[in-house]
Amino acid sequence: MTCTRLTELAHGGGCGCKLAPSVLQQLLADKPAAMPFAQLLVGNESSDDAAVWQVDENTCVIATTDFFMPVVDDPHDFGRIAAANALSDVYAMGGKPIMALAILGMPLGKIDIGTVRAILAGGEAICAQAGIPVAGGHSIDSAEPIYGLAAIGLCAPSNVRRNTGAKPGDVLILTKAIGVGVYSAAFKKQALPPEAYDELIASTTLLNHIGHELGKDDDVHAITDVTGFGLLGHAMEMARGSGVRIALDEARIPFFGQAKALAEAGYITGASKRNWHSYGEGVTLAGNLPAWRRDLLTDPQTSGGLLVACKAERAAALRTMIEEAGYPRASIVGTVVEGSPGIEVG
Question: How many other CB atoms sit within 10 Å of the CB of residue 49?
Answer without folding.
Answer: 28
